[in-house]
Amino acid sequence: MPEIAKLTYFPLTGAQGVDADHVLLRPGGVVGDHEYVLYNPANGQRVSEKERHQLLQLQPILAEGCLWLYREGQELLEVPPIREDMAPEVTVHEFDDPTPCYDAGNKAARVLSEFVGDAVRLAVKSQAWLHGGGIPPVFRRNAAMHIAVAESVADLRAQAPAASFDYRRFRAQVLVEGEEPYGELGWVGRTLVSRQSVIDVVREAKRCIVTALEPQTGENLKDVPKLFKYLNEQAGRLTGKAVFGVYGAPRLQSPHQIAALSVGESLAIY
């Protein structure tokens, strides 16, 4: 039976992830995941690691409502809790989804603009959005959870043995082991059930050029054209985008219900 091998969440979209033995789930996904986002104040578009590779050098720490950002072990910025009743409301277009957010203030904007070399601002997503409000999580372009399979990662690593390659390259929150390579593509429309949670697998995960970037430095590994072709062959079609892993959404009965996942838990597939 497949089981959970690793769990990772990404407090700041585009920055490094945080590994965990245990995570909580809400309707919008893993608690602490993709809560903060950089955006372009001129057009409201999300600033991604594709545009600003420096983001991949940032290690975020999220605790007690505060966000700390570190670079090479040195603190770059501390962001105190953002009160929704006092912060300016902004709409950030993330993966084409208009996402309600609250601006983190001028200090964060100044520090991060200097860091990436362009005018950017930091925002935190609204609690309503994080708890599944607005566009339902199953229909969001960036679905609630990305689930990858260790055997698929190992197979893909074998196709590019000279590359620096691990599952974080695909920025998955959940890594499962104990499945055939690319067997996860058969999970779409099915349900993953653990001791603590139920996850609906809603669609395949089509990956972009971010998979060409080394997950900590942003260095372009230059093996993506070959890997994209290989992944399309595994999926049995040519779509123009690589398919790797699947997207899922926690099945919860109310916006404020919480579930959980832990490393080592078995997953039944229905």
Characterise the protein shown here.
The protein is mainly beta and 270 residues long. The protein has 2 domains: 159 residues, PK beta-barrel domain-like (M1 Pyruvate Kinase, Domain 3); 96 residues, no CATH class. Helix content is 14%, strand content 35%. The strands form 4 sheets. It has an 8-stranded mixed beta sheet with strand order 2-1-13-12-16-15-14-18. The chain has a 4-stranded antiparallel beta sheet with strand order 5-11-10-9. The longest helix has 12 residues.
Primary descriptors:
35% strand; mainly beta; 4-stranded antiparallel sheet; 2 domains; 14% helix; 270 residues; globular; M1 Pyruvate Kinase, Domain 3; 4 helices
Give the helix/strand layout:
Elements: E1 3-9, E2 18-20, E3 22-26, E4 29-30, E5 36-39, E6 58-63, E7 66-71, E8 74-79, E9 89-94, E10 97-103, H1 106-116, E11 121-125, H2 127-130, E12 145-149, H3 150-159, E13 174-177, E14 191-193, E15 198-207, H4 224-235, E16 242-250, E17 259-262, E18 268-269
Q: How much strand content do the residues show?
A: 25-35%
The helix/strand class is mainly beta
- The largest beta-sheet arranges its strands as 2-1-13-12-16-15-14-18
At CATH level 2, the architecture of the largest domain is Beta Barrel
Largest sheet: 8 strands, mixed
Number of separate domains:
2
- Rounded to the nearest angstrom, the radius of gyration is 18 Å
Average per-residue pLDDT, rounded, comes to 87
Gross geometry: globular
What's the total number of strands? 18
CATH homologous superfamily identity of the largest domain: PK beta-barrel domain-like
Residue ranges: pLDDT <50 for 5 or more in a row? none
- From the 3D structure, determine the CATH topology of the largest domain: M1 Pyruvate Kinase, Domain 3
From the structure provided, what is the oligomeric state, counting identical versus distinct chains? single chain
Tally of contiguous helical segments:
4
* Highest-level CATH class of the largest domain: Mainly Beta
Helix content: 10-25%
Series of H and E elements: EEEEEEEEEEHEHEHEEEHEEE
> What is the first-to-last residue Cα distance?
12 Å
